């Protein structure tokens, strides 16, 4: 499976919203585009148009990775993934593997520590060791779904990347290669884990942002239904 950067973002957002906002899933074109362009929990931050999102959806539907549906009494088409964990999917993940794959698609290469700190709304890892075990299981699949990158100078831990997009993999390796050796050698070490209070504050902020995004999407869909 080889996805473009935009296709990977579409799949990742459908995976994420299926778990974090199940009451809003499947997603309309408008909601999916907003999720793709979300400024938090995304790397890189994109500015996709609805037309670009639709092109990705159409391509993914041809590959049977996305399907559409229309709700009773509504003409708004909504979309859901068939990427994994459905009867039509070749990929079947447990909750931990699902979270790791989703995060790697959303945010690119990450260390086990980063994955643990960012996974709370998808799956609760009790320690970094659990993340390591999950990553290891995803490197042993045939074909491998995750790859460990060479440790960069100045970093304490190696990062891992998903192997669903050659475009994303090449961009990541190019970024590492193009970084001057001197700059990499003096890079600050990875920050220590945040405190429990900081983690709770961050989680609360993310929850508030998600709620606001959901309410805006609901208002836009209601307006779209009214205009139709």
UniProtKB/TrEMBL annotation:
InterPro entries the UniProt entry points to: DUF480, WH-like_DNA-bd_sf, WH_DNA-bd_sf
Which SUPFAM superfamilies does the annotation name? Answer: Winged helix' DNA-binding domain
Highest taxon listed in the record's lineage = Bacteria
Query: What family does this chain come from, according to its entry?
Result: Belongs to the UPF0502 family.
Can you say what this protein is called? Answer: Uncharacterized protein
């Amino acid at each position: 499976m080889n996805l473009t950067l935009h296709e990977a973002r579409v799949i990742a957002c459908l995976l994420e919203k299926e778990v974090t906002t199940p009451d809003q899933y499947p997603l309309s074109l408008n909601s999916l585009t907003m999720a793709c362009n979300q400024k938090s929990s995304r790397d890189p931050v994109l500015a996709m148009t609805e037309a670009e999102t639709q092109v990705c959806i159409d391509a993914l539907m041809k590959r049977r990775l996305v399907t559409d549906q229309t709700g009773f009494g509504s003409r708004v088409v909504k979309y859901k993934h068939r990427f994994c964990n459905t009867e039509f999917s070749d990929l079947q993940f447990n909750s931990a593997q699902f979270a790791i794959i989703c995060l790697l698609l959303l945010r690119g290469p990450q260390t086990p520590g980063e994955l643990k700190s960012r996974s709370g709304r998808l799956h609760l890892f009790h320690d970094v060791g659990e993340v390591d075990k999950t990553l290891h299981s995803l490197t042993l699949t045939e074909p491998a779904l995750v790859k460990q990158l060479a440790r960069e100078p100045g970093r304490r831990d190696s990062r891992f990347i998903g192997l669903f997009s050659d475009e994303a993999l090449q961009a990541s390796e190019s970024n590492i290669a193009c970084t001057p050796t001197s700059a990499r050698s003096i890079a600050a070490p990875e920050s220590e884990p945040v405190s429990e209070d900081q983690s709770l504050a961050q989680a609360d902020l993310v929850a508030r942002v998600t709620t606001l995004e959901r309410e805006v999407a609901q208002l836009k869909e209601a307006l779209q239904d009214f205009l139709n």
